């Protein structure tokens, strides 16, 4: 029965990590309403779309890995509450990640989607 608690605590982070890897390898090519990091700011033009999906994949990867680690730690502290703790951590991490992505868009593009700084997402820290 204990393995069920472990799997339920670590599965969200593991699944999100796998999805983020797929998302990073196969990013959406054009602006669409089904797949990708879709916000008003990210969908302004193709340049903001590409930038947002690059950093969105990075954000999802970190959220997935950190949620997996939080689930493992929660399991060893309190197995019966591990799934709830992991789910709570996932929700908080997703909101923090979205805030970070939107902030990066705000820093790098004006309100019309024109670049303010170096627009190459590979130069991000």
TrEMBL record:
<keyword id="KW-0812">Transmembrane</keyword>
<keyword id="KW-1133">Transmembrane helix</keyword>
<feature type="transmembrane region" description="Helical">
    <location>
        <begin position="6"/>
        <end position="23"/>
    </location>
</feature>
<feature type="transmembrane region" description="Helical">
    <location>
        <begin position="51"/>
        <end position="77"/>
    </location>
</feature>
<feature type="transmembrane region" description="Helical">
    <location>
        <begin position="83"/>
        <end position="101"/>
    </location>
</feature>
<dbReference type="Pfam" id="PF13630">
    <property type="entry name" value="SdpI"/>
</dbReference>
<dbReference type="InterPro" id="IPR025962">
    <property type="entry name" value="SdpI/YhfL"/>
</dbReference>
<keyword id="KW-0472">Membrane</keyword>
<protein>
    <submittedName>
        <fullName>SdpI/YhfL protein family protein</fullName>
    </submittedName>
</protein>
